[in-house]
Amino acid sequence: MKKVLAGLGAALLLFVVGLAVYVASRQHLKFSVPLPAVAAATDPAVVERGRYVVRNLASCPICHGDPKQMERAQAGEEVPLSGGFEFNIPPGKFYPSNITPDPETGIGRFSDGEIARAALRRGA
Ligand code: HEC
Protein backbone atom coordinates (compact mmCIF):
# COMPACT_ATOMS: atom_id res chain seq x y z
CA MET A 1 0.00 0.00 0.00
CA LYS A 2 2.79 2.44 0.92
CA LYS A 3 4.56 1.67 -2.37
CA VAL A 4 1.40 2.38 -4.37
CA LEU A 5 0.88 5.71 -2.55
CA ALA A 6 4.54 6.65 -3.04
CA GLY A 7 4.23 5.81 -6.76
CA LEU A 8 1.06 7.89 -7.08
CA GLY A 9 2.71 10.77 -5.20
CA ALA A 10 5.74 10.63 -7.50
CA ALA A 11 3.50 10.56 -10.59
CA LEU A 12 1.50 13.53 -9.29
CA LEU A 13 4.68 15.47 -8.52
CA LEU A 14 6.04 14.72 -11.99
CA PHE A 15 2.76 15.89 -13.54
CA VAL A 16 2.74 19.16 -11.55
CA VAL A 17 6.40 19.89 -12.34
CA GLY A 18 5.83 19.08 -16.03
CA LEU A 19 2.78 21.36 -16.12
CA ALA A 20 4.70 24.19 -14.42
CA VAL A 21 7.57 23.87 -16.94
CA TYR A 22 5.10 23.85 -19.85
CA VAL A 23 3.23 26.94 -18.58
CA ALA A 24 6.51 28.79 -17.85
CA SER A 25 7.81 28.03 -21.36
CA ARG A 26 4.74 29.78 -22.86
CA GLN A 27 4.91 33.00 -20.79
CA HIS A 28 6.50 35.27 -23.40
CA LEU A 29 5.09 34.10 -26.70
CA LYS A 30 4.89 36.75 -29.43
CA PHE A 31 2.41 36.67 -32.28
CA SER A 32 2.73 38.56 -35.51
CA VAL A 33 -0.67 39.94 -36.48
CA PRO A 34 -0.91 41.85 -39.79
CA LEU A 35 -2.50 45.31 -39.78
CA PRO A 36 -5.99 45.29 -41.31
CA ALA A 37 -6.15 47.30 -44.55
CA VAL A 38 -8.68 49.91 -43.40
CA ALA A 39 -8.93 53.68 -43.61
CA ALA A 40 -11.00 55.86 -41.28
CA ALA A 41 -14.15 57.22 -42.91
CA THR A 42 -14.46 60.96 -43.49
CA ASP A 43 -18.18 60.97 -44.33
CA PRO A 44 -19.78 63.02 -41.49
CA ALA A 45 -22.73 60.60 -41.24
CA VAL A 46 -20.37 57.64 -40.72
CA VAL A 47 -18.27 59.61 -38.20
CA GLU A 48 -21.44 60.54 -36.28
CA ARG A 49 -22.55 56.90 -36.29
CA GLY A 50 -19.13 55.93 -34.87
CA ARG A 51 -19.43 58.58 -32.16
CA TYR A 52 -22.89 57.25 -31.28
CA VAL A 53 -21.63 53.65 -31.13
CA VAL A 54 -18.62 54.57 -28.95
CA ARG A 55 -20.63 56.80 -26.58
CA ASN A 56 -23.89 54.85 -26.37
CA LEU A 57 -23.65 51.26 -27.53
CA ALA A 58 -20.11 49.98 -26.99
CA SER A 59 -19.68 51.78 -23.65
CA CYS A 60 -16.05 52.65 -24.32
CA PRO A 61 -16.29 55.53 -21.77
CA ILE A 62 -17.08 53.10 -18.94
CA CYS A 63 -13.47 51.93 -19.06
CA HIS A 64 -11.64 54.65 -20.99
CA GLY A 65 -13.27 57.64 -19.29
CA ASP A 66 -11.58 59.53 -16.48
CA PRO A 67 -13.03 58.40 -13.12
CA LYS A 68 -12.77 62.01 -11.87
CA GLN A 69 -15.23 63.01 -14.57
CA MET A 70 -17.67 60.16 -14.01
CA GLU A 71 -20.42 62.42 -12.62
CA ARG A 72 -20.27 64.65 -15.68
CA ALA A 73 -20.29 61.58 -17.93
CA GLN A 74 -23.31 60.15 -16.15
CA ALA A 75 -25.07 63.49 -16.60
CA GLY A 76 -24.74 62.95 -20.34
CA GLU A 77 -21.66 65.09 -21.02
CA GLU A 78 -19.09 63.73 -23.49
CA VAL A 79 -15.94 63.59 -21.40
CA PRO A 80 -12.55 62.85 -22.99
CA LEU A 81 -11.59 59.18 -23.13
CA SER A 82 -8.31 59.89 -21.36
CA GLY A 83 -8.19 56.80 -19.15
CA GLY A 84 -7.50 56.83 -15.43
CA PHE A 85 -9.28 53.77 -14.10
CA GLU A 86 -7.39 51.03 -12.36
CA PHE A 87 -8.89 47.55 -12.45
CA ASN A 88 -7.35 45.62 -9.61
CA ILE A 89 -8.17 42.07 -10.61
CA PRO A 90 -5.69 39.70 -8.97
CA PRO A 91 -3.19 38.55 -10.01
CA GLY A 92 -2.79 41.86 -11.87
CA LYS A 93 -3.82 45.46 -12.33
CA PHE A 94 -5.19 46.70 -15.65
CA TYR A 95 -5.26 50.27 -16.92
CA PRO A 96 -7.49 51.22 -19.86
CA SER A 97 -5.42 53.45 -22.14
CA ASN A 98 -5.83 57.09 -23.00
CA ILE A 99 -7.56 56.87 -26.40
CA THR A 100 -7.88 60.60 -27.09
CA PRO A 101 -6.22 61.87 -30.30
CA ASP A 102 -3.33 63.33 -28.28
CA PRO A 103 -0.09 62.36 -30.07
CA GLU A 104 1.94 62.10 -26.84
CA THR A 105 -0.40 60.48 -24.32
CA GLY A 106 -3.23 59.18 -26.53
CA ILE A 107 -3.47 57.29 -29.80
CA GLY A 108 -2.93 60.29 -32.09
CA ARG A 109 0.10 58.71 -33.70
CA PHE A 110 -1.56 55.34 -34.37
CA SER A 111 -2.37 54.53 -37.99
CA ASP A 112 -5.95 53.58 -38.86
CA GLY A 113 -4.79 49.96 -39.18
CA GLU A 114 -3.17 50.03 -35.73
CA ILE A 115 -6.35 51.39 -34.13
CA ALA A 116 -8.48 48.79 -35.90
CA ARG A 117 -6.15 46.02 -34.82
CA ALA A 118 -5.87 47.24 -31.23
CA ALA A 119 -9.44 48.12 -30.48
CA LEU A 120 -11.78 46.56 -32.92
CA ARG A 121 -10.39 43.35 -34.33
CA ARG A 122 -7.93 41.74 -31.93
CA GLY A 123 -8.30 43.45 -28.58
CA ALA A 124 -4.55 43.90 -28.26
C1 HEC B 1 -13.98 46.55 -20.12
C2 HEC B 1 -13.16 47.73 -20.25
C3 HEC B 1 -12.95 48.29 -21.64
C4 HEC B 1 -13.90 48.67 -22.56
C5 HEC B 1 -15.43 48.64 -22.41
C6 HEC B 1 -13.17 49.16 -23.71
N1 HEC B 1 -11.83 49.07 -23.49
FE1 HEC B 1 -10.36 49.64 -24.77
N2 HEC B 1 -8.96 48.96 -23.50
C7 HEC B 1 -9.20 48.47 -22.23
C8 HEC B 1 -7.94 48.16 -21.60
C9 HEC B 1 -7.76 47.58 -20.16
C10 HEC B 1 -6.93 48.46 -22.54
C11 HEC B 1 -5.43 48.33 -22.35
C12 HEC B 1 -4.99 46.96 -22.79
C13 HEC B 1 -3.49 46.80 -22.61
O1 HEC B 1 -2.83 47.71 -22.10
O2 HEC B 1 -3.00 45.76 -23.02
C14 HEC B 1 -7.61 48.96 -23.71
C15 HEC B 1 -6.97 49.34 -24.88
C16 HEC B 1 -7.59 49.99 -25.94
C17 HEC B 1 -6.88 50.51 -27.09
C18 HEC B 1 -5.38 50.40 -27.35
C19 HEC B 1 -4.71 51.65 -26.86
C20 HEC B 1 -3.20 51.56 -26.85
O3 HEC B 1 -2.58 52.57 -26.43
O4 HEC B 1 -2.64 50.54 -27.25
C21 HEC B 1 -7.81 51.09 -27.90
C22 HEC B 1 -7.56 51.82 -29.23
C23 HEC B 1 -9.10 50.90 -27.25
N3 HEC B 1 -8.92 50.22 -26.08
C24 HEC B 1 -10.29 51.35 -27.76
C25 HEC B 1 -11.52 51.01 -27.23
C26 HEC B 1 -12.79 51.32 -27.87
C27 HEC B 1 -12.96 52.08 -29.20
C28 HEC B 1 -13.77 50.82 -27.06
C29 HEC B 1 -15.26 50.80 -27.31
C30 HEC B 1 -15.63 50.14 -28.55
C31 HEC B 1 -13.11 50.21 -25.91
N4 HEC B 1 -11.76 50.34 -26.06
C32 HEC B 1 -13.78 49.64 -24.85
C33 HEC B 1 -10.43 48.32 -21.64
C34 HEC B 1 -11.64 48.55 -22.24
UniProtKB/TrEMBL annotation:
One term of GO molecular function: electron transfer activity
SUPFAM superfamilies linked to this entry: Cytochrome c
UniProt-recorded name of the protein: Cytochrome c
Organism: Eiseniibacteriota bacterium
